[in-house]
């Protein structure tokens, strides 16, 4: 496992903001340091920005010394999705975009 199984909520918000784009996150909820979006609004935001989240996760995986092939990239993604606690449908879309972006690995 690459990341902690349970991520504190503030850290989770920072990660979502970073992966989706700080500007977009801040425009919707305010700065991630103080934002307190309700679960429904955050889920809608994450769903809207799933492609950006997938791109961010691809970049993270590419920069990781632990990711050396498509299998380790998928393990990395599984771990990150678990810690981000995305809705099942959103996670499936992120997973598909990630798979497409890493198929040549």
Description:
α1 packs across α4 (50-63). With 105 residues, the protein is an all-alpha fold. The protein is elongated. The protein has 6 helices and no strands. 24% of the residues are buried. It has one domain (9-102). The model has no long low-confidence stretch (mean pLDDT 92).
Topology diagram in text:
Blueprint: H1 9-20, H2 22-29, H3 39-48, H4 50-63, H5 70-84, H6 88-102
Helix pairs in contact: 1-2, 1-4, 4-5, 4-6, 5-6
Cα shape:
elongated
Residue share in β-strands: under 5%
Q: How many separate structural domains? A: 1
Largest sheet geometry? none
Estimated radius of gyration: 13 Å
Write a brief structural summary:
The chain has 105 residues and is an all-alpha fold. Helix content is 70%, strand content 0%. The two termini are 20 Å apart.
Q: What labels would you give this structure?
A:
105 residues, 6 helices
């Amino acid at each position: 496992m690459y990341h902690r199984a349970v991520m504190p909520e503030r850290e989770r918000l920072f990660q979502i903001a970073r992966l989706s784009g700080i500007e977009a996150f801040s425009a919707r909820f305010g700065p991630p340091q103080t934002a307190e979006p309700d679960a429904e609004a955050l889920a809608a935001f994450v769903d809207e920005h799933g492609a950006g989240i997938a791109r961010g996760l691809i970049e993270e995986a590419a920069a990781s010394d632990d990711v050396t092939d498509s299998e380790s990239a998928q393990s990395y993604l599984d771990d990150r999705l678990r810690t981000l606690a995305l809705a099942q449908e959103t996670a499936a879309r992120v997973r598909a975009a990630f798979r497409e972006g890493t198929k040549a690995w």
